[in-house]
Write a structure and sequence with these properties.
Elements lengths: L1 E5 L5 E6 L2 H4 L5 H15 L58 H17 L3 E4 L9 H11 L4 E4 L6 H7 L5 E4 L6 H6 L2 E5 H11 L1
Parallel strand pairs: 1-3, 3-6, 4-5, 4-6
Antiparallel strand pairs: 1-2
Length: 206
């Protein structure tokens, strides 16, 4: 499919032929959901923890005598029904990550990119490079382009000046082609890919 190429000055500088197998497939919402869950599960810290009855510190003595108190007999203050006792089946430190086949992840990434293209929210940029890391200059260019919440995917390396200028702007993310992922594509309204990024993504997802 043909797609216009624009510059940061919001001028058309040419066109590009995008691979339909990557940018024009029917999006698979089920695979996108599975991949997002996989990504979010991997980033969970899993450091939540409660103490079981074997981990509570304190005296091992019987809380009170067996008979004559009118209360139910108790052998330890660490029992789960006692105040300050252990927790039954409480959370423990663990890894929440799980496996997801590479084919599923690859197809989900294609689906996310194709979904943006179908919505008309895919932009091909000639290059994401600045002569100086000036946030003010980049903000002016973004206003001309009309971008709000945007993800910019560059080639193998991100231009240092562009990345530094964009770091101070809320709602704009910059990633190299190797860091392109389903979650970041979905969380931004507009997907911007440079020509170098298109080449690398095509090579990666072919």
């Amino acid at each position: 499919m043909k797609q216009d190429i624009i510059s940061l000055a919001n001028k058309k500088v040419g066109d590009i032929d995008l691979d339909d197998a990557i940018f024009g497939i029917d999006p698979r919402g089920d695979l996108i959901a599975r991949t997002v869950n996989w990504q979010l599960a991997k980033r969970r810290a899993g450091t939540h923890k409660t103490k079981g009855r074997s981990e509570v510190n304190g005296t091992k003595a019987k809380p009170f005598k067996q008979k004559g108190t009118g209360r139910a007999r108790q052998g330890t203050k660490f029992a789960t029904q006692m105040r300050g006792g252990g927790i039954v089946f409480g959370p423990v430190v663990r890894d929440h990550g799980h496996d997801l086949p590479k084919k599923v992840r690859r197809l989900a990434l294609k689906s996310a990119i194709s979904a943006k293209q179908k919505e008309g929210k895919l932009v091909i940029l000639d290059s994401a490079a600045l002569t100086a890391p000036k946030t003010r200059d980049l903000v002016k260019q973004l206003e001309k382009l009309g971008w709000g919440r945007v993800l910019v995917i560059d080639g193998e390396q991100v231009d240092t000046n562009f990345a530094k200028a964009a770091a101070n702007i809320i709602g704009i993310d910059v990633l190299p082609s190797g860091g392109a992922n389903v979650y970041d594509i979905l969380r931004r309204d507009t997907l911007v890919i440079t020509q170098a990024g298109v080449d690398k993504l095509t090579e990666r997802l072919k």
